[in-house]
Each structure stands twice: as C-alpha cells, then as structure tokens.
C-alpha cells in the first residue's frame, strides 16, 4: 500500500465518523450554501472520545499554537476514536473540520463553564466524563498517553492486536 493511501485512510475515517448531523444551511459569501450542523456531545458517548479546544478566536496565539501541536497527529486521533471540536467565541466552530452551529458551540461552553475569553482544552472519554482539563497548551502525545492508559483503550488495543 503506498504512503498516500496510508495518509488518506485516517483522514477518510475522520470524515466518515464525523460526529455531526445535518441541521441547517447558511448562505456563504460566494452565494452558495454552506452546510451547518449541530453537535451533540451525548451522541458521542460510547462511540468516540472528544477533545474540545475552546478559544476566544482563531487569532488567539495560544489557540494557534495548540492547533499546530495537534495538526500533525491525524493518525493518532483516528486510532483513538478521538474527535476534535474547536469552539471559538468570535469565529465559526468545527467538529472534525465540519462547521457546527452557534447554539451547539454555546451549549458546549455552558456545559463546561468556559467563558468566551478563555482558552481551555478538555478531553472527554467515551463514557462521557471529563478525563483532563488544561488552561495551557497540551502536547498531542500527552493527550494520547492519557488515553492509552485508560482501561477501555487498553481493551481496544488488545482487540486490535488479535485481528
């Protein structure tokens, strides 16, 4: 199997396993419809882990650094059934690169008590509970180590080795 296929497979898996459902459309500036979806955290329970990155805007330097730390690790996200949700106060928010509506973003902020001006990274396990919460930059490897130490992830790795 060539390298481009190996790179494309995790990305395709992320798109296929996207945690959003069609909710609405909005008119884009180029006069075409942009799909906007809702994101329901409880729909992820027992299916995916969720990494929430809260920030005031895309211009926030800490947010930009955090996204740079995460962007190199698509395969690690796919291997761990980890969905990335970017919740931005003054810009569009995304779940696995798919636009989510403002009400979904607002609900996530309210649920986790994150003010619009704050930066926060929160890892939610498949059981729906918060596994870690950081107000500073987090390395993807630290998040992966945390996940890999979880009993459910240990079981997943054993099952995958048997196949």
From TrEMBL:
The keyword Chaperone does not apply. Residues 41-156 form the DUF4174 domain. This is DUF4174 domain-containing protein. Residues 1-23 form the signal peptide. It comes from Nostoc commune NIES-4072. Keywords: Signal.
